[in-house]
Amino acid sequence: MIQTTKEESDRIRIVKCTAIVLVVFLHAYTTEVNFADGCQTAALPEWLRMLETGVSQTAARCGVPIFFLLSAVLLFRAEHTYKEVIQKKIRTLLVPYLIWNTFWIAVFLILQSLPFTAGYFSGNNTPILQSSVYEWFGLYGIGREYPHCYPLWFMRDLMAAVLFFPLIREAADRCPAAVMCIGIGLVVSPYSFFCKTAFAWFLIGAAVVKKKGSVMVFDKYSMVKTGGLYFGSGVAALLLDSPVSGNVFLFVGIMFWLRLSKEIYDRRKLREIFVKLSNWVFIIYVMHEMTLSSVRKICFRMLPATPLFWLLEYLLLPAVVIAGCILAGIVFKKCMPELYRISTGER
User: Fold this and answer.
1) Spatial contact of 321 and 288, defined as CB atoms under 8 Å apart
2) pLDDT tens for residues 140-187?
3) What is the DSSP letter of 31?
4) How confident is the model at residue 129 (pLDDT cuts 50, 70, 90)?
5) Is 298 helix (H, G, I), strand (E, B) or coil?
6) What is the Cα–Cα distance from 259 to 253, expressed in whole angstroms?
7) Neighbours of 258 (CB within 10 A)
8) Is 227 exposed, middle or buried (0-12, 13-18, 19+ CB in 10 A)?
9) What is the Cα–Cα distance from 82 to 179, expressed in whole angstroms?
10) Is 206 buried (19+), middle (13-18) or exposed (0-12) by CB count in 10 A?
């Protein structure tokens, strides 16, 4: 078992905080919203479209891979038996997955049943109460690309990758270089299949552990050079809009955020803020997207359809939603500590 130092543990927490912010901004981008009476589109001016594309569709794309990579590294470092891994993941992944997806299904079922909210929560999908048995399975991500609570696809795919834990570990023990190449090959491959992203980063994570890598691997590079590379490759990915430039930026982005964690860690007060905020990463993850999409619908209907309001909505909604999720988590934990413990996988 590879021991995690206090610094590395704190820096993993810091990276998770930055990654969840990226994920929230990833979901903040939209140009249209579905209502029961049709789709409403925002005709964004070119400058605003470029801004939102640069942040949400380019810079924020490395948020989810960071979570997959960290999950894989921590799993393969622990060196648990297959039985221990499955038992732990049932508690930390499967149970929270079922609880939170059921929670959001219940919320939407209620809101679709109320006359004054039905128009905001029905969209162009089949109302939940009218769903067939097959569609109910789809709500839980079975036979469908995404579950009802969209971000939970990450947990579902993570569980699927964990099932192959012993095979991936054995392959990484025998030939880590080949496993790393296969993982990178899957990331850059244009072909898609079920759980591709999870398997790709699990392979990379297993190889990283075998090579004794850590979040501190890029500390030897200066922040100026790393930041310059990040900015340059980001601009190239945005302007070229090609798979090659996008994949290069994806890997550079992960390097940048891992390196930035060193700068945050070295500033004690800033480090303490990030470490405290990291306690709420899971709550933000399971609550942000459905909350964000719901509030966005209200904004689309209630606020003036002007570039200024679209800009303010894009910049402020993520911060408001993150703050709201943290507040809800604090209240939830204080009022129902046992349910909070179970629904967060004892995090």
Assistant:
1) yes
2) 999 888 999 999 999 999 999 999 999 999 999 999 999 999 999 999
3) S
4) confident
5) helix
6) 10
7) 24
8) middle
9) 20
10) buried
Residue position matching structure tokens 């997207």: 289
The whole-model pTM stands at 0.91
Q: Tokens at residue 148, please?
A: 């009802």
Scored b (16 or more CB within 10 A) or e, 308-344 reads eebbebbeebbeebbebbbeebeebbeeeeeebeebb
What burial class does residue 120 get, using C-beta atoms within 10 Å of its C-beta: 0-12 exposed, 13-18 middle, 19+ buried? Answer: buried
For the chain, percent of residues with pLDDT exceeding 70: 95
Q: How many residues does the chain have?
A: 347
Q: Nearest to residue 20, comparing CAs of 247, 312, 326, 332?
A: 326
**Which token pair is 309?**
């309001």
Q: 97 and 155 in contact (C-beta within 8 Å)? A: yes
Per-residue tokens: 92? 């930390």
Higher pLDDT, 40 or 291: 291
Task: Kindly state the DSSP code that residue 336 receives in the 8-state scheme.
Answer: -
Greatest CA separation for the chain? 61
Contact present, 134 and 128 (Cβ < 8 Å)? no
